[in-house]
Design goal:
Elements: E1 2-14, H1 15-18, E2 27-38, E3 43-46, H2 52-56, H3 58-62, E4 70-73, H4 80-86, E5 96-98, H5 104-107, E6 118-121, H6 122-129, E7 148-151, E8 155-158, E9 161-165, E10 174-179, E11 184-189, H7 209-224, E12 228-231, H8 237-240
Parallel strand pairs: 3-5, 5-6, 6-7, 11-12
Antiparallel strand pairs: 1-2, 1-4, 2-3, 8-9, 9-10, 10-11
Bound molecules: zinc ion (ZN).
Zinc ion (ZN) binds next to helix 5.
Domain Metallo-beta-lactamase: 31-233
Protein name: Metallo-beta-lactamase domain-containing protein
Family: Belongs to the metallo-beta-lactamase superfamily.
Length: 251
């Protein structure tokens, strides 16, 4: 099995977006990622980044009020389809697309996979369908409902590839645990935005803070047991910890 961490753009963001208890004013350039997992049996994509609309018309998608706090810095090259092309792949090469959750920066790139199988938590799909304000980008919705698999809690996709149900940030959020040959890697997605959020004292934006705290404790325990965490929007982690990005493959 291999893991490739694919950068799919940035946001110019206010820290208060990531930490609702903080005062506005501290600016950060935060990354967005997608993850390619290749096993002996399949090629899986975990999260898909932003849609084309998010780049072309961010205010139209996210609302004028959002842009001063969270402004996309996206080029056409940042779209997941362009990033896959660099790896010699086209969308039909992907056997399964999995979304951590349906927010626009994690499922907007689903638009490139309209013929693919997509999997997400049932609770997330229901939440997204009933809250257009929190889920303004409808790109998460599969064109063909028959190709959508709705999951219920922790799920083994394959041996050593496990989705961990981590609700709180959204009601149906999930993270991904990969048991690579060297060491387990825990892709937290938005259950933990940054290293600073990997503590019960500093909760990120959460639809249900109690659930988010419980999920965070679970992830902390997995890291105590040896998993190496990779956070969804940490501006410094990749450089500070020496993570290598696409096309590098962790094995
Ligand atoms: Zn996010």
């Amino acid at each position: 099995m291999t893991l490739t961490i694919i950068p799919v753009g940035f946001f110019d963001s206010d820290w208060s977006v990531l930490s609702p208890d903080a005062a506005p004013g501290r600016r950060l350039r935060i990354p967005v990622y997608s993850y390619l997992i290749r096993t002996a049996h399949s090629q899986i994509l975990f999260d898909t980044g932003c849609s084309h609309q998010c780049r072309v018309d961010p205010a139209g998608l996210l609302g004028d009020d959002t842009i001063p706090y969270l402004s996309p810095e996206l080029t056409p090259d940042d779209h997941i389809s362009a990033q896959l092309q660099k790896l010699g792949l086209v969308p039909k090469d992907i056997d399964l697309v999995v979304n951590s959750h349906c927010h626009f920066d994690h499922a907007g790139g689903n638009e490139a996979f309209i013929s693919n199988h997509i999997a997400m938590q049932s609770a997330e799909y229901e939440a997204a369908a009933s809250d257009r304000q929190a889920y303004p980008d409808l790109a998460y919705r599969p064109a063909d409902p028959a190709r959508l698999t709705l999951l219920h809690g922790d799920t083994d996709l394959e041996p050593k590839v496990t989705l961990i149900f981590t609700p709180g940030h959204t009601l149906g959020h999930q993270s991904l645990l990969l048991e690579l040959s060297d060491r387990a890697v825990l892709i937290t997605s938005d259950a933990v935005y940054t290293r600073a959020h990997f503590s019960t004292d500093c909760l990120g934006a959460a639809q249900d803070p109690d659930l988010a705290r419980k999920s965070l404790k679970r992830l902390l325990e997995m890291v105590q047991d040896g998993a190496r965490p990779f956070f969804s929007h940490d501006p410094d982690q990749a450089v500070q910890e020496g993570w290598r990005l696409s096309p590098y493959e962790y094995v």
